[in-house]
């Protein structure tokens, strides 16, 4: 369990973090989302010991994180840090050794990871000869090579093509299945929604919403009904309670109280009901509502 508790951080008059609190459970993929400057990178840097918080704590299983704990984490910073003239295989293997792997262990882990990330054919190329997307894959391999006990990844999917996204998502899912907590930030909300068990939404240094994706959908989706009514009587929606938005035969009603049976009854009287159900908001809608 990785626990972030009441983190505060200021840079002069600028408040970067204002009481950030959330946790990432073992085997959980946690998506950390927010606008540029919201506090995502600052939180991750404090978690990894790159920055020191003004107050608050970062714990693992209830105990303060130590240098040795962080050494066993896999970290991908926002600013990539690769040796541009070093060959891909040598570089990943080198970082594996720095993280404590034996020479044989580092070589084996590097070969397996490069194959998984479709980098085997570029293993002997210098990093500066690679595309930005492939450099991103190498940076990910560096974070993963030592089989970390937790993963802290700042925008890991940035610049990746769909095939590379799928490959990385598969690797992260395997690590989660093995009980590894995974925290990653991203601006790609559709990707976060697809991959993550839980989400934290940060705005202006504060956590505006957090919880499992299902919890957030349930919380934000209450009172939202979607209906499709064919051949309806003109103006029938005027008597509906709540806020009504019409798009042809599709009607979205928000602010609904109760089970919505009154609305269903009116819809049946007005026309042919093809759809009636509570609408589940997307993560993008939840994000907009949380930071509004």
Distance between the termini: 30 Å
Enumerate the strands of the largest sheet in spatial order, edge to edge or round the barrel: 6-7-8-3-9-10
- Characterize the main sheet: 6 strands, mixed
Portion in beta strands:
25-35%
pLDDT averaged over residues: 90
Model regions low in confidence, pLDDT < 50 over at least 5 residues: none
**Strand segment tally:** 14
Give me the number of helical elements: 10
Q: How big is the Rg?
A: 24 Å
Describe the structure.
The chain is of the alpha/beta class. It has two domains: 2-217, 3-Layer(aba) Sandwich (Rossmann fold), CATH 3.40.50.300; 222-291, Alpha-Beta Plaits (2-Layer Sandwich), CATH 3.30.70. Helices cover 35% and strands 29% of the residues. The protein is built from ten helices and 14 strands. It has helices at residues 40-47, 67-71, 88-98, 103-116, 132-144, 162-177, 189-195, 213-221, 261-270, 283-291; strands at 2-11, 14-24, 29-33, 55-60, 63-64, 73-76, 150-154, 182-185, 198-203, 206-212, 224-230, 243-247, 250-254, 272-278. Strand 9 (198-203) and strand 10 form a beta hairpin. The chain is elongated and about 75 Å long. This is ABC transporter ATP-binding protein. It is a peripheral membrane protein. Keywords: Antibiotic resistance, ATP-binding, Nucleotide-binding, Transport.
């Amino acid at each position: 369990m990785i626990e972030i508790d009441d983190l505060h951080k200021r840079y002069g008059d600028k408040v970067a973090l204002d009481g950030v609190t959330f946790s990432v459970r073992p085997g959980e993929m946690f998506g950390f989302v927010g606008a540029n400057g919201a506090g995502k990178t600052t939180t991750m840097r404090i978690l990894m010991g790159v920055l020191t918080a003004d107050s608050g704590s970062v714990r693992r299983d209830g105990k303060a994180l130590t240098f040795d704990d962080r050494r066993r984490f896999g970290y991908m910073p926002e600013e990539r840090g690769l040796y541009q003239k070093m060959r891909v295989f040598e570089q990943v293997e080198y970082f594996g050794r720095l993280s404590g792997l034996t020479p044989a262990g580092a070589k084996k882990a590097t070969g397996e990871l490069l194959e998984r990330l479709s980098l085997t054919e570029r293993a002997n190329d210098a990093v500066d000869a690679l595309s930005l997307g492939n450099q991103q894959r190498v940076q990910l391999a560096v974070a993963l090579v030592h089989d970390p006990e937790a993963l802290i990844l700042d925008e890991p999917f940035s610049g990746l093509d769909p095939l590379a996204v799928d490959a990385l998502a598969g690797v992260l899912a395997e690590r989660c299945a093995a009980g590894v907590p995974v925290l990653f930030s991203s601006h790609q909300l559709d990707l976060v929604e697809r991959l993550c068990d839980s989400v934290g939404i940060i705005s202006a240094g504060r956590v505006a919403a957090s919880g499992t994706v299902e919890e957030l959908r349930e919380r934000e989706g209450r009172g939202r009904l979607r209906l499709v009514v064919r051949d309806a009587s003109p103006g029938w929606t005027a008597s509906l309670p709540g806020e009504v938005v019409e798009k042809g035969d599709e009607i979205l009603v928000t602010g609904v109280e109760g089970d919505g049976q009154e609305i269903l009854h009116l819809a049946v009287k007005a026309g042919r009901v093809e759809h009636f159900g509570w609408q589940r908001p997307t993560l993008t809608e939840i994000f907009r509502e949380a930071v509004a």
